[in-house]
Design brief:
This protein is of the alpha+beta class. It contains 25 helices and 20 strands. The two termini are 61 Å apart.
C-alpha cells in the first residue's frame, strides 16, 4: 500500500536528492529522463503538437513489467482517466474569476452578438418592406384624428355639454321654464367661448399652418413642404391614436401598428418567442406552457443557430423528440437540418437547426493539407463531419467495427479516410485484405504490414495468425493480472487493425479447402464457414488485446455478417442501404425503429452515413472528400505516413512482425507491404530478405486491367490488350507480340493495330486456356451490340473464371 505520510520513509525518494542540483543535471542520463518526462507531460495538452519527436512510440512510457507470482497486482484503470482526459470538477475557489464574470452570460460571446445582429437586421429589413402598410395605417389614424379634432372643437365651440343637459331635462319632463333657462345658459357659454383668445389663437394657428404648407407645396413642391406636412401628420396621428384608445380601451397602443409575421417561421431569425410558437404549433407545448432560455441564442456554423433552453416540468425530452418531424415542418426545413440533444440534464435541451442543407457542400479532408501524425488511440480517426459542422472521429481501440451499405454510396470514401488516418499513426499495424478489386487499394500498400486480395485460404491463415497472437497477449495479461492493454503498452503490443474490404465476396465464396486434420486428404471444408468461425472467435475476446477487425461489406443481409462478430461490434457505420433489413443488418436490430434509417439517406448526399460509435451514437454524418478520380489525393498522405514510419523503424519489413512471420511459415509467401511489387500478390522471400515474385496468372492480370479501367463491366479485346501492355509490357507490348511500331500514316496505323489485336487475342486465349487447365471453369469472348459495340470479355465472367464469387 502506498505511503502517503508527509515525511518520506527511510530510503525513500527524498534521500537521494543531492544538495547541489547542478550535479543532478550534469548526469546525461538524468537529463534525458527529465526531457522524456517533460515530453510525456506536454503530449496530451493542446500545445503538444504531434510530430516526429512528440507523441511517437519512442516517447511512450515503457511497458509494465511482468510481476512474479504473488507480486504487485495492476489495477485496470481507464485510459482516459489515467491521462487526464476527464478531469475532476473544480471547486469555486479554484475557478479563476475575471472582470468579465460581472456581466451577463453572452456579453462577450461573438456567436451571441452575431445572432443578435442578424435578428436586428432582419427586423429592420422586414419593417422597411412593410412601409406601405405602416403609411396606410398612419393615414387612417390621421383621418381618425381629423374627425376627432373637428368633433372635439365643435363640441367646445358650441357648448354641446348643455345640449346633453337639455335632452336630459326633456326626458325627465321638467318644466318648460327650466328647459328654456338651460338653452339660454348654453347660448351665453357658447358666445363667451367664441371670444376666448386661446380658441381664436389655436384656430388661427392650425389654419395658418395648413395654408402655409399648401402654399409652399404649390410654389416649391412637395419636398419643401414635407417638414410641415410631417408635423401636421404627427399631430393628427396623435389625435387619432388617442381616439383609437378611447374606442378600444382593452387593446394595447402597439396593436394599431402591429403587422403579424404569419405562420412562416422558417425564414425568421430564432427568438424565444418564435421558438415557443413553433413548439406550440408542433403540439409539444400547450398554450399556457413555454420554454425558458438558459443561455443567449447564438449563431453556429453552416448558417446554423443554437438555442439552449429548459423544458417545462410537464414535458419530457422523449415527447420533444417524438415531435421532431412536426417541429421541422413548423420551421419549414427538412428534418435532417434539425438536431435536438440533451444538454446535461433531463429537461435541458440543445436545439440546433440551419436554413440550408448542412451536408450540401462537400469538405476536403484536413489530412490533405496537414498530413501530420494522428492519434488513433485517444482521439480516433477523422472520418467526416456532422450536421453541426463538427468533426467526427472513429476510435478503433478495444472495439470490433462494421462498415456497410449499397454499392456507390460513399462506402469507399469512408474507408479511404480510415486507411489514410491509420497510415499516419506508426503505433498501428494496418493489415488490409481486399475481397475484390485489390488494384484500387494498391496506393495504401506502402504503409500496410499486410496487404493482399482475393485469397480466401490466405485470409484464413491470417485470422489464425491473429488468433495465435491474441492468445499470446492474453497469457501476458494473465501473468500481470490485468484485464486489457492500454496506450502505455503500444510499443510492445501495437494496435493490430485488420480491414476486410468486400467481405461479402468471402462470405459467398463456394471455395473448399482440404481439411488439415484429415491425413488421407479426403475431407474438405468451406472457406466461408471457416472465415466466419475465426471472426466470431476473435470478436469474442481480442478487442481488449489491442486487436481490432473492421469488416466492410455491401448489400448485407442477416446472414452476411457472422452473428457472433456483429453482436460484439461496438462501432458500426452504415451508408445508404436498400431497405430496413439491410439497415438493421449493419447497425443493430431495431435500428430503424430507433430512428437510424440509413435507407432514407438521400441519393443527393454522397458520402452520407449513419454512425453508431462512441461519442456519436446514431448520428448522421458526411465523410470528408479525398480525390480519387482526377488524381490520387491519398498519395501524399500515404507518403507522409511511410516517411514517419521509416523514421521510427515502423515501416513494413523494418520491425519484427509475428503475424507476417506466421504467414511466411505456413504459406511460404509474404504479403508485407503488398508483396514484391505492392500489388497485393504475396511472394516468397529469399534468405537475404529479397523478394522472389509469385507467378501471376493471366486472370489476375485481367482483373487488374479491369480495375485500372475504372467502373466498367466489359472490355473489348483491343482495349484490354492496351491495359495489359501497361501492366506487363514484356509480354503484351507491340514488340513482345512481334508487331512493328505503329506507323504514322493512317493506313499503316490501322494495319498495325489490326495485326496487334489478332496476335494479342491468340496469345490471350492460349494463356487463359493454360490457366484454366484442370478446372471445370472456362472463359470465352462475347459480342455485345449495346454501345460501345464490340467483342471482348465481361468482368463477371473473368471473376467467375478466377474463382471469385459474383458481386
Amino acid at each position: 500500500m502506498t505511503d502517503i505520510s508527509p515525511e518520506p520513509a527511510a530510503g525513500g525518494p527524498g534521500d537521494d536528492i543531492p544538495d547541489d542540483l547542478s550535479d543532478l543535471f550534469a548526469d546525461p542520463a538524468v537529463r534525458d529522463r527529465l526531457e522524456k518526462e517533460a515530453r510525456d507531460a506536454v503530449r496530451g495538452t493542446r500545445a503538444g503538437r504531434a510530430d516526429a519527436t512528440t507523441g511517437t512510440p519512442r516517447d511512450l512510457p515503457a511497458p509494465l513489467p511482468i510481476p512474479e507470482a504473488g507480486g504487485l497486482v495492476f489495477d485496470d484503470e481507464d485510459d482516459d482517466q489515467e491521462h487526464g482526459a476527464v478531469p475532476a470538477p473544480r471547486t469555486p475557489a479554484e475557478v479563476q474569476r475575471t472582470w468579465k464574470d460581472a456581466f451577463p452570460e453572452g456579453t462577450f460571446d461573438s456567436g451571441v452578438w452575431a445572432h443578435r445582429r442578424k435578428v436586428l437586421l432582419h427586423k429592420l429589413a422586414w419593417h422597411a418592406g412593410h412601409t406601405h402598410v405602416y403609411m396606410w395605417r398612419l393615414t387612417r389614424l390621421s383621418a381618425l384624428g381629423v374627425g376627432a379634432g373637428l368633433r372635439d372643437g365643435w363640441h367646445y365651440y358650441s357648448a354641446q355639454e348643455y345640449a346633453e343637459m337639455v335632452d336630459t331635462a326633456r326626458r325627465k319632463k321638467m318644466t318648460p321654464d327650466m328647459v328654456a333657462a338651460l338653452r339660454e345658459e348654453r347660448l351665453e357659454y357658447a358666445r363667451a367661448r367664441r371670444r376666448e383668445p386661446m380658441l381664436i389663437g389655436a384656430t388661427t394657428g392650425v389654419l395658418t399652418a395648413v395654408a402655409a404648407a399648401v402654399a409652399v407645396a404649390q410654389v416649391y413642391g412637395l419636398l419643401a413642404a414635407s417638414p410641415a406636412a410631417m408635423l401636421t401628420l404627427g399631430v393628427l396621428s396623435a389625435l387619432g391614436l388617442r381616439e383609437h384608445r378611447r374606442r378600444n380601451p382593452d387593446q394595447p397602443l402597439t396593436a394599431a401598428f402591429a403587422v403579424p409575421h404569419g405562420d412562416d417561421d422558417g425564414h425568421l431569425p430564432l427568438t424565444d418567442d418564435m421558438l415557443n410558437r413553433v413548439l406550440r404549433t408542433a403540439k409539444v407545448l400547450k398554450d399556457d406552457q413555454e420554454i425558458i432560455l438558459v443561455e443567449p441564442i447564438r449563431a453556429a456554423e453552416i448558417n446554423g443557430v443554437e438555442a439552449k433552453f429548459r423544458l417545462p416540468k410537464e414535458v419530457t425530452f422523449s415527447q420533444l423528440m417524438a415531435k421532431k418531424e412536426a417541429i421541422a415542418n413548423a420551421l419549414d426545413i427538412e428534418e435532417r437540418w434539425l438536431d435536438i440533444r440533451k444538454d446535461g440534464s433531463a429537461n435541458r435541451v440543445s436545439f440546433w437547426y440551419c436554413t440550408a442543407d448542412p451536408f450540401g457542400t462537400p469538405r476536403v479532408s484536413p489530412l490533405m493539407d496537414n498530413s501530420e501524425q494522428t492519434d488513433v488511440w485517444r482521439r480516433g480517426i477523422l472520418i467526416g463531419f456532422n450536421r453541426r459542422g463538427l468533426p467526427i472521429y472513429l476510435k478503433l481501440r478495444h472495439v470490433m467495427a462494421l462498415l456497410g451499405g449499397m454499392s456507390r454510396t460513399g462506402k469507399g470514401m469512408l474507408l479511404r479516410n480510415l486507411l489514410c488516418g491509420l497510415g499516419l499513426d506508426p503505433r498501428a499495424n494496418l493489415r488490409l485484405v481486399a475481397g475484390a478489386k485489390p488494384g484500387e487499394h494498391r496506393g495504401y500498400a506502402p504503409v500496410c504490414s499486410t496487404f493482399f486480395g482475393r485469397r480466401p485460404e490466405r485470409l484464413i491463415t491470417l485470422l489464425e495468425a491473429l488468433l495465435a497472437e491474441a492468445y499470446r497477449r492474453e497469457d501476458i495479461l494473465e501473468d500481470q493480472a490485468r484485464a486489457k492493454f492500454g496506450e502505455k503498452d503500444l510499443p510492445d503490443f501495437p494496435l493490430e487493425i485488420l480491414v476486410i474490404d468486400e467481405y461479402k465476396q468471402y462470405a459467398n465464396s463456394s471455395k473448399r479447402l482440404p481439411d488439415p486434420s484429415d491425413e488421407e486428404g479426403k475431407r474438405t471444408f468451406k472457406a466461408a464457414d471457416r472465415i466466419a468461425e475465426l471472426l466470431e472467435e476473435l470478436a469474442a475476446f481480442a478487442a481488449a488485446l489491442n486487436i481490432t477487425v473492421l469488416v466492410v461489406t455491401q448489400d448485407p443481409d442477416a446472414n452476411t455478417i457472422p452473428r457472433g462478430f456483429k453482436s460484439n461490434s461496438g462501432a458500426r457505420v452504415a451508408t445508404r442501404t436498400g431497405g430496413p433489413t439491410q439497415t438493421n443488418a449493419i447497425l443493430k436490430e431495431g435500428a430503424t425503429g430507433a430512428g437510424l434509417r440509413a435507407h432514407e439517406i438521400p441519393e443527393s448526399m454522397p458520402g452520407g452515413a449513419i454512425v453508431d460509435i462512441d461519442g456519436a451514437p446514431g448520428e448522421l454524418i458526411r465523410s470528408f472528400f479525398i480525390e480519387d478520380e482526377e488524381f490520387d489525393g491519398a498519395a501524399d498522405i500515404i507518403a507522409a505516413g511511410l516517411a514517419l514510419r521509416m523514421e521510427l523503424g515502423r515501416a513494413p519489413g523494418q520491425f519484427s512482425d509475428p503475424i507476417e512471420d506466421y504467414l511466411l511459415r505456413h504459406t511460404g509467401l509474404s504479403s508485407s507491404g503488398g508483396g514484391p511489387n505492392g500489388s497485393g500478390r504475396p511472394g516468397p522471400l529469399e534468405a537475404g530478405g529479397e523478394w522472389t515474385e509469385e507467378e501471376t496468372t493471366i486472370l489476375d492480370l485481367m482483373l487488374d486491367a479491369f480495375a485500372k479501367a475504372g467502373d466498367v463491366d466489359r472490355l473489348r479485346t483491343g482495349d484490354l490488350l492496351v491495359l495489359l501492355a501497361d501492366l506487363d509490357p514484356d509480354t503484351w507490348s507491340y514488340e513482345a507480340l512481334g508487331v512493328e511500331e505503329v506507323p504514322e500514316d493512317q493506313d499503316g496505323h490501322k494495319a498495325a493495330v489490326t495485326a496487334y489485336n489478332r496476335a494479342g487475342g491468340r496469345r490471350l486465349a492460349e494463356e487463359i486456356a493454360a490457366a484454366l487447365e484442370g478446372t471445370d471453369r472456362e472463359l470465352v469472348t462475347r459480342e455485345w451490340t449495346t454501345a460501345p459495340r464490340g467483342r471482348g470479355y465481361l468482368l463477371a465472367e473473368v471473376r467467375t473464371a478466377a474463382g471469385i464469387a459474383p458481386e
